[in-house]
Amino acid sequence: MGTLSKTQRRNRIKKRSGVTLAGTAARPRLSVFRSNKEIYAQIIDDESGCTLAAASSLGEKTGQGVTKIDQAKTIGQAVAQKAIKAGITQVVFDRSGYLYHGRIKSLAEAAREEGLKF
After folding, report:
1. Is 106 within a domain?
2. Number of domains the chain is built from
3. Strand ranges of the sheet holding 50-56, from the earlier edge strand across to the other edge
4. Would you call 114 exposed, middle or buried from its count of C-beta atoms within 10 A (0-12, 13-18, 19+)?
5. Does any domain span residue 54?
6. Is the dihedral angle over the CA atoms 43, 67, 38, 61 positive or is it negative?
7. Residue range of the domain that includes 19
């Protein structure tokens, strides 16, 4: 058995944490996905299976020449504002197997600054 690639390691962590992470109507799940260029965040109620709020760097105006970390901050603020408008103040943070640093960390901190609790 050799070493794992980044994707294999992330999928293993995601599978392991997926057992314990679930969003309810009272406390939905803030799920994050990052690609090489973009970052996406959505707030999901797993009981009803619907997305309550979402933001992505594709849909939001982040500007040209902005770093990916600043882009993630913008998305964190946007998803938090949409969640608060929908009446959501507490969420469960699902980092989808990504390590908590860089873009994931900046998105989470920006969402906390806007008023989301997790």
Report:
1. yes
2. 1
3. 50-56, 39-45, 29-34, 92-94
4. middle
5. yes
6. positive
7. 6-113
pTM of the model: 0.84
Give 4-57 pLDDT, tens digit per residue: 898 898 888 777 776 677 777 789 999 999 999 999 999 999 899 999 999 999
| Number of alpha carbons in the 13 Å side-chain half-sphere of residue 112 | 9
Question: Crossing angle for the helix pair 103-113 and 68-85, nearest 10 degrees?
Answer: 40
Tell me, what CATH number does 99's domain have? Answer: 3.30.420.100
Written as six digits, the tokens of 60 are: 């939001």
Strand (E) or helix (H) holding 113? helix 103-113
Closest CA to 10 of 98, 112, 89, 104: 98
